[in-house]
Design a protein that fits this description.
The protein has 15 helices and six strands. It is mostly helical. The strands form three sheets. It has a two-stranded antiparallel sheet with strand order 1-2. Strands 3-4 form a two-stranded parallel ribbon.
């Protein structure tokens, strides 16, 4: 049996912070291996409820199928970290993502340091509804990313748009419920494609991680998304930050920080 000082657990539960010894990771590993809360508690010399509390304080809960769900950190620090990896996004999208009101978001920006420059006011939304101009802007941006990734692309299909759209962009289902796809493409000045748009991509996911790894290895200090985008402009053939982030988010890397860590380790997808 591994004995852990009870004061450590009390501090975790009281302050909602993971332990310095990374017990959260150990507990998650035990759960992934099939251990129950009671079995983990017996191993570490605490009650099964204390194990549940520690994981809960770290934002991790389990459903009936023992599948872990990581709750988003709604503090100013948590929202700021998420914006660093996913922003800029419309304010309405950010509120929906974290389940907070627009008034609460305003308070976090005004008094708690959430960066205003990563939150778009309006940006295609009126209240919680995207406008036609917002649809066109999102489609135009998606076309530029698709051409960077797949130079041979001749048109933007619904499927291709869905694959390269950014966090906060309207879904293709929302767009096509409001207006025909060909009309929004015409408004954006983008050639309309048909089908799912199954092109051969210019970079594999492993190559995208490799570019992040090279940037991380050549950059002292903090490795930021904006810093990558500036760095890649001096590199021959480097993908844009928007492309890297969009592709890797869809392949198991939810934040910029997780992409940087994977690239620095030399992970493969």
């Amino acid at each position: 049996m591994i004995t852990i000082d009870a004061g450590v657990f009390d501090s975790i539960v009281e302050h909602g912070k993971p332990p310095a010894t990374d017990l959260v990771a150990e507990f998650r590993g035990e759960r992934a291996g099939g251990a129950t809360f009671r079995q983990i508690g017996d191993k570490y010399g605490v009650s099964h409820e204390r194990v549940r509390q520690v994981l809960g304080a770290a934002g991790i809960t389990y459903d009936r199928n023992h599948t872990a769900t990581i709750r988003k950190d709604r503090t100013a620090a948590g929202i700021t970290e998420w914006l660093a990896g996913n922003g800029p996004v419309p304010a309405g999208v950010l509120c929906e993502e974290f389940g907070i009101t627009s008034q609460r978001l305003s308070e976090l920006v005004a008094h708690h340091g959430v960066p205003r420059n990563l939150i778009m006011s309006g940006a295609g939304r009126t209240g919680s509804t995207f406008t036609a101009a917002g649809f066109a802007a999102a489609v135009g941006g998606a076309w530029a990313r698709l051409k960077e990734e797949v130079p041979s692309a001749t048109g933007l299909s619904v499927g291709s748009y869905d694959r390269v759209r950014l966090p906060g962009d309207p879904s293709p289902a929302l767009i096509t419920a409001r207006m025909p796809w060909r009309d929004v493409c015409a408004a954006a000045g983008v050639p309309c494609g048909a089908g799912r748009g199954n092109y051969t991509v210019k970079w594999t996911d492993d190559e995208l991680l490799g570019w992040i790894g090279r940037y991380a290895g050549s950059t002292p200090g903090r490795v930021t998304f904006d810093g990558y985008d500036k760095w890649r402009r001096a590199q021959d053939g480097a993908p844009s930050g928007a492309l890297v982030r969009t592709r890797l988010r869809r392949n198991g890397y939810p934040t910029w920080a997780s992409m940087v860590a994977a690239g620095a380790r030399g992970d493969t997808v």
